[in-house]
Design a protein that fits this description.
single chain, 176 residues, mainly alpha, 70% helix, disordered N terminus
């Protein structure tokens, strides 16, 4: 499995228009397409890969013991988070009800902190993505995919917290 990386596209889908100058609807559509859809598609496969790697490396000194159980909890937390954004927060923002979005935004930002803590835990369980010289291809692929997940989640959280949510919370009008 290879998680689709967003790379430079995550920074600017249209390089001429900075994120800070885009409409909330453009930002939300980008988030849904480039972050939410890949997370839903890739996290279950990543979990299955972690289970397989743990099973095959059980005796190895750098075995990522507990990684699959951790990723299972990450999957549940992320699915819940995405649903709240898609069913509650994003509709409020798109309806121009920015003031009503204040508390949901605070909740999402707190959950983002939890997601960042989960990324740190993933790093700890994988010894900083450190592999032995004789690591299998599946083990190497898993760690590459986890690094891409980490990069994408960091970009996702930064775009929401520092651009979208900041704009909504700083808006003096409900009409965004």
């Amino acid at each position: 499995m290879n998680i689709a990386t967003n790379g430079p596209a995550a920074e600017h889908e249209n390089r001429e228009t900075p994120w800070a100058e885009r409409s909330p609807s453009e930002i939300i559509e980008f988030i849904l397409r480039h972050f939410h859809e890949p997370l839903r598609r890739d996290l279950p496969t990543l979990l299955a890969s972690a289970r397989a790697v743990e099973a095959e490396t059980r005796e190895a000194p750098l075995c990522p013991a507990g990684l699959a159980d951790h990723l299972e909890q990450v999957l549940l937390a992320v699915e819940s988070h995405l649903a709240k954004e898609e069913k509650i927060l994003f509709p409020l923002i798109l309806a121009g009800r920015g003031r009503a979005a204040f508390m949901p935004i605070k909740v999402m930002m707190a959950e983002h902190e939890d997601h960042l803590a989960n990324l740190r835990r993933t790093r700890a369980l994988t010894n900083g993505f450190g592999l032995p010289s004789d690591a299998t291809d599946s083990w190497r692929t898993l760690y590459l995919d986890l690094q891409r997940l980490e990069a994408d989640l960091n970009q996702h959280i930064e775009l929401e917290n520092n651009i979208l949510f900041t704009r909504v919370m700083g808006s003096s009008s409900d009409n965004l």
